[in-house]
Amino acid sequence: KNEVEQSPQNLTAQEGEFITINCSYSVGISALHWLQQHPGGGIVSLFMLSSGKKKHGRLIATINIQEKHSSLHITASHPRDSAVYICAPTPNTGNQFYFGTGTSLTVIP
Amino acid sequence: DTGVSQDPRHKITKRGQNVTFRCDPISEHNRLYWYRQTLGQGPEFLTYFQNEAQLEKSRLLSDRFSAERPKGSFSTLEIQRTEQGDSAMYLCASSVWSEQYFGPGTRLTVT
After folding, report:
1. Residue A60 and which of A7, A96, B64, B77 are 20 to 30 A apart at CA?
2. Which residue(s) pair with A73 in the sheet?
3. How far apart are CA B28 and CA B46, in angstroms?
4. A&B contacts, CB < 8 Å
5. Calpha distance A14→A109 (Å, rounded)
6. In this complex, which of A42, A45, A95 lies closest to B99 when CB atoms are compared?
7. Using one digit for the tens of pLDDT, what is the confidence trace for A45-103?
8. Distance from CA of residue A83 to its chain's centroid?
């Protein structure tokens, strides 16, 4: 049983395109992280959210707690956005994360 | 210190050898997490410390794996009698509450 589903698994976009990555989860959560992982392994937390919407620059994250769904949007995508984006909900019954398998994004100039 | 550090960044070992990794969290963070990530997969939770207490352990953490955080600051993860299936990236993260900050990881290759 996979508690976290991300889609798409792979995404190729032209520079400037608007990108959406979706995450659905099956557990009750206290918060959800969107993480960015570049080749080589380093992980950066982009957002932590428990309701509504957050925006950092060209990145927007939304969450609908009732529907157990979150989205990450990238506006005006750029080749430097190429990375794996991982959805990581934190169940409200514990302290660990569940992780999606990630969405591998490639932005072509 | 502005982030989580891990040492070594890369480790190559022969099957059957023991290895130990170190994680230094952000100094004021009382929570510390270990994760394992294999190629093409998302990270998997291994264990969690609050201060020096190990509060959660995944069933993935077999008896060959042990983690410590003796003084509630840095943590070590030891793998005994390594197997080729242990080859992975081992990630450490720390937090005060829910928002976790990740280290660069230790990439283990077992030959």
Report:
1. A96
2. A20, A60
3. 22
4. 62
5. 6
6. A45
7. 899 898 999 999 999 999 999 999 999 999 999 999 999 999 998 877 666 678 888 99
8. 11
